[in-house]
# Entry
Amino acid sequence: MDNPAILEQPYITITNIIWSFDRETDQLQVLLVKRASNPYADYWALPETFMRAQESADEAALRLVKEKIGLTLSNYHTEQLATFTHNDRAPGERALSLAYMTFLPEMPPLKAGYGALDAHWFTFSATEAGQFSLTYRQLHFMTATSHSQHSYYKNFKIARGRDYLAFDHDWILKVACQRIKNKLNYQPNILLVLGHDFTLKEARTVYAAFFGIPVKAIDNSNFKKTHQHLFKEVGTTTRRQIGRPAKLYKLAQIEE
Amino acid sequence: MDNPAILEQPYITITNIIWSFDRETDQLQVLLVKRASNPYADYWALPETFMRAQESADEAALRLVKEKIGLTLSNYHTEQLATFTHNDRAPGERALSLAYMTFLPEMPPLKAGYGALDAHWFTFSATEAGQFSLTYRQLHFMTATSHSQHSYYKNFKIARGRDYLAFDHDWILKVACQRIKNKLNYQPNILLVLGHDFTLKEARTVYAAFFGIPVKAIDNSNFKKTHQHLFKEVGTTTRRQIGRPAKLYKLAQIEE
DNA sequence: TTTATTAAAGTATTAATTACTTATATTAGT
DNA sequence: ACTAATATAAGTAATTAATACTTTAATAAA
# Structure
């Protein structure tokens, strides 16, 4: 091709933001692992892996899911988020990160495995002002507060404490939250964390989580009117509960 | 990190879709080059380069612009599109493509250079049905017609004639057109091909090009009402022309 | 059977979009 | 200098969509 001056190829890392939904607490969850080795040993981070010769990046992202939760799940949706290439994003080495998002239809138990010291589901929450955070017991991580990529990496070189995620993962998470929020009105794939079908209230719960508002702040009747073109009715819930049974919907279109 | 089983790293290619606007014909332009070397020697393709050790992918994308048009332009906007990683996208080798888009504020003359046999601005056009194509003299290339990534690559292995672009560049272009079209209503960065400021009519010309409809099909008054929150008034045009002088606008927000 | 609960369905108001009309600022021709 | 032609800004009425709120319906438990 153009120019043979490839001095050295950077490492290609696949980073996957794995989402699920806890039906006990009605809260969104994100999978974080505690890194075993440098750089950022002992830091919490998004699950990562190196790409292998015979697999595509999409396949590598799926492999990450399998490594952390086992092979039990049969259907989940993975989509590309963006690629992060800033020179300083990994200390002392050059590493590209192809970031993906996976939406799991349930919240399976985790195993650290493959060199990670620990793995946990962190509870996702947001403020009305647009800040996002992940919490597990006393551990609490904020996504980046910078508005632009440029301003984020400008201050990135400084040493970061243990209250930060490894690498630029706080920025990657911010980009992910932003993307999901943007797509809520035309392609809310995040709803796949609710499984194959869902009630309008469950859908509103997910929406409310991203806006940092209570579910009841979103009117069910109006929500149906403005979003029903995205959903397809597939029956009525059979789950025994008090009150009128809710109708079930699924996403009308999963494709890009 | 997780696993040392990296057999071999794939090539990392930067692909850049460079857009401009021809004020003579009021048509959008895309830069294509004729490849000098294999794979796909003699095929027309999007400009590509390998990433170098000391530059970020963003910088490599900008370098591509400089190589093709020289160093004359001072301001242009580049943004990431997506990363293409399918196993079969390059014959006999493994190559990732980090795809970018650059919007040039004018339409400078081109030089092939850096191993390309030829380089030209191709006129972009679309149909109302959502098909896109690039034309230069008797050369005519369609973007992919597949609706999904999966269906595109399913039929990709078959030998492709010279009426196709190299690699999966027809698919990359399709994704680009789709992305630009989606962003017209909230972040129309494509308007940067019009330069720092533009009239509403010029903006409508660009919109109409992506919808495959004539400019006059978009009402100027209504367009202003629905889009003025994206624009900021910066004066009145000084270009001598018949009729009432148009007001000038610029994009209110360039940032992601 | 009654009450509490939950969600669906309906209604009236408000806001946004669309189609269309009028007014204004300029150039070119007489 | 006046008039016609042109191009765009600005305004208006009708339609459509979004929002706030109310009523109806289906279930579980007392």
Q: What stands out?
A: The two ends of chain B are 31 Å apart (CA to CA). Residues 199-201, 220-221, 224, 241-247 of chain B lie near DNA strand D (CB under 10 Å from a C1'). DSSP finds five helices and eleven strands in chain B. The first helix of chain B runs from residue 57 to 69.
